[in-house]
Amino acid sequence: MTLWAGPGSSVHATAAKDFVRYADDSCPGKNGEYYVCAPWRLSLRGGKVIRLKEARVFIGPGKKIRAPFALSPHGSKAAYFRLKDGALVVRDITTGRVRVVPGIRWPVDLPLQISLSPGGRFVVLRGDYLQPRRVLDTVTGRTHPLPAGRTPWSFSPDNAHLLASDGDGRSVVYSTADWSVVRRARTPAGSLHTDGTTIAYIDRRGGHRIRFLNLVTGRPAGAPLKIPADESGHWLLWDRAGNLDLLTMVKSRSAGDHTTFRWRRASDGMRVLDTFTNRSSDEIDVITGLPDL
């Protein structure tokens, strides 16, 4: 089933919890290659496809280069520049509601990449000519620059904190209320819990495991969890209820032009939430939960 999202249409028929698996703006070309093509197509977990006709795909006429686009970590929101007026908008996939972000409008300095925080509250702006990286508040329109070399890694599920990595084994936690630094730690970058002090990260040394760390004490915050042997861990996400989800690549089902991804509820015995396959050679898709840092 395909739903259209554009002028005179809506996506209110989308199921309340039917989140996006990935966004596709590609078409097959010659010699097995893919190229950018319009419109954006959002593949949902329930099998539906939403075609975002109002979203900008190309940076300009005759230029087959993708315009900025992002999905929130769990796939409930999408951010893109609207064709009709150049506004940066955040669309709620579960309701179809669209919210205009103040403080930014197309055209923008290119190249530009964007990423979206949980619930779509913040947009991270990054690009070759945009240093340092900036965090844009989608409600107030205010932009908050981070020190050069510091990479936004994960927001807490309530957006109250941001964990950023310095790339040398050190992490910094910001309060998004005033952008003050509330915590510093020497630790691998990971997924930040709502409490703002606990992270979960994938440890690939001596086995594939999820480990938990308290940033205040520097000590483990729980027993490690083993990732299934046939799967490779890619990303971790907490939700507001304290559930921890894991995105993996299924090795035995990934070959040639296809990669199979799986979402698991790591905090509930590795229960499988969703499994889907994406083209390996098509590197222009945006996959929920697989950030481009």
UniProtKB/TrEMBL annotation:
<protein>
    <submittedName>
        <fullName>Uncharacterized protein</fullName>
    </submittedName>
</protein>
<dbReference type="InterPro" id="IPR011044">
    <property type="entry name" value="Quino_amine_DH_bsu"/>
</dbReference>
<dbReference type="InterPro" id="IPR011042">
    <property type="entry name" value="6-blade_b-propeller_TolB-like"/>
</dbReference>
